[in-house]
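Title: Prediction job returns without error message
Component: structure pipeline
Severity: low
Priority: P3
Assignee: unassigned

Description:
Job completed but the reporter wants confirmation the result is attached to the right record. Sequence as submitted:
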Amino acid sequence: MPGSAKISVPSMGGALFTTGMLAAPLVACVVLKISCAIWQAFRKHRLPE
């Protein structure tokens, strides 16, 4: 993970917690996990030419 991402992710989570959006980081993690699972499932499939 690049250095800027290591710094920005906790600060974004903290900002969401302070604004009252307590579930936002959890929702973002679920969306990321699902998209990674879909990518892993279909990454070896090639499009027909």
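Comment from assignee: result matches the submitted record. Residues 3-42 form one domain.
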